[in-house]
Amino acid sequence: MQTLTGLGVSAGVGQAEALVVSPAPGLPETDPKGEVKDDLATVQAALNKVADRLDYRAMHADAAAVAVLTATAMMARDPGLGFSVENHLKSGSGPAHALWDAFDEFCEQLTAAGGYLAERVTDLKDVRSRTLAVLAGLPEPGVPTIDRPTILVAEDLAPADTATLDPEMVKGLVTAAGGPTSHTAILASQIGIPAIVRCPQARSITSGTKLAVDGVTGTVLVEPEEEAVAVLIARAEKRKAVLDAVPEGDTHTKDGLRVLTLANIGAPADAIAAKKKGAEGVGLFRTEFLFLERQDAPTKTEQVGVYSQVLDTFDEDAKVVFRTLDAGADKPLAFADLGPEENPALGRRGLRLSQVRTDLLDTQLAALAEAAQKTGKMPYVMAPMVATTLEAKWFSDRAREAGLGVVGVMVEVPAAALRSSQVLETVDFASIGTNDLTQYAMAADRLQGELSDLLTPWQPAVMQLVKSTCDGAGGRLIGVCGEAAGDPLLALVLVGVGIRSLSMAAGKIQAVKAALALHTQAQCEEIAVAALAQPTPEEAKKAALALADPGMEVLVS
Ligand code: PEP
Ligand code: MG
């Protein structure tokens, strides 16, 4: 038996034989050129065919898959793609090469954007493979028909394939690439298939090999021994019992301290899915996702529509937080480029960009105010990357002038965390972005995988900055909306230092609720004191686990 490890992204244990999904077709050897206009029409027709097929599948898919299939179809219909193909045809490429290069450009932009957007690259490459197959007159690439229990193993899985998988037949997914916010991960957990991503050793698995997978710990057992599988199953059953025992409704600690459990979203469809997963509201709507990949900013009317949809998803008194445009650095905007910078992560990003492009910010604030009127619900609005008291005041004045009543800032720069009592003076709430706070506190680029030891929010220095923010909050509601909030054990530490609102990927909410239900406020405080006293992230985690309820053992990976 061999044990491989990846990132568990969809809980559950499965065992079956592996089916390795063969790679998508590459560029054809010959690519005859015709008139630009004719070649463009051929490529457009192929793209439309792919989009139509995806839309057709969306019509016959269940609710969880519809949004992904429709979004993928929209990529195929993106007019920007057509323009780019035309440019490549005009500079002498044949249709297949023009298509390939146009997609490459889009993929590069998304990869440079990082995070959620970078994980959309898989979706784009899937559209490209399907279109190339149409151009070459080949059958659609992807997962073959599955008629017996199987664990799919792939380099990465296309969302259009994942969306229509039958959990009765597909007992697990293992991909070498992918990430926790890739559509494969999101869909797998929606459909209920155990899934593991970022498991490079999976490349050595061949079809027919017996596998067992645990989607919580990220374990893949190759040719597993019976006892090892029994251990995985027993752990999964225990975890299910703990999750099932979580009381329904609002989130509380064991002794009744109210903590909000909210979702991070990037689009209105995410809000609907998050509500189904128990989100009480939204702690972070990354509104920049409406702006990226576009040649022009979305109009006020378009924004009012999107914001209203999100507000309407939740009850009147729900906390729904809109973060204003967080562009620049790893999320460049075509229409708000302030020129090249030596260190973009330390440059004119976030609020600093909004202070230059006040037109973009003011339209956004006006759209939020109009959405509030239209829906009768009061949005929370917050600015990203606030470092100083003056910046916080500048934003707060502007948002209130626009008619917004609940104004906050993100605390993701150590300076703001250290001086929170002054920085928060003019605002109503704050949300700590632990992803950037960790990057800036540890001076470690968050996009640099090799620095992952420094980049964990378990770093005592990062936890101390979270505590410092809470200590200076003067009674204001302080939340966390970075990845840290979705770690059930770390959530206890966060509540222990004063955090009362946790916002995370929707799939993580139930486990965090379970963790809080197992502990009293005093226990969280005790765990926090112990974790913060440790010299390293590993020791902090160990100290927290040692004081936590034994039920936590099955909730942590
Ligand atoms: C963060 O920095 O923790 C955060 C939530 O914002 P983003 O990940 O979008 O930078
Ligand atoms: Mg951030």
TrEMBL record:
Binding positions (Mg(2+)): 412, 436
Localisation: Cytoplasm
Necessary cofactors: Mg(2+)
GO biological process: phosphoenolpyruvate-dependent sugar phosphotransferase system
Record EC number: 2.7.3.9
Keyword Metal-binding on entry: yes
Family: Belongs to the PEP-utilizing enzyme family.
One cellular-component annotation, GO: cytoplasm
GO molecular-function term, one example from the UniProt record: metal ion binding
Designated name of the protein: Phosphoenolpyruvate-protein phosphotransferase
Positions that bind phosphoenolpyruvate: 286, 323, 435-436, 446
Domain Phosphotransferase system enzyme I N-terminal, chain residue ranges per copy: 5-120
Reactions mediated catalytically: L-histidyl-[protein] + phosphoenolpyruvate = N(pros)-phospho-L-histidyl-[protein] + pyruvate
Positions of the PEP-utilising enzyme mobile domain: 147-218
Domain PEP-utilising enzyme C-terminal: 248-517
Organism: Acidipropionibacterium virtanenii
UniProt keyword annotations, A-Z: Cytoplasm, Kinase, Magnesium, Metal-binding, Phosphotransferase system, Pyruvate, Sugar transport, Transferase, Transport
Entry annotation: catalytic residues: 183, 481
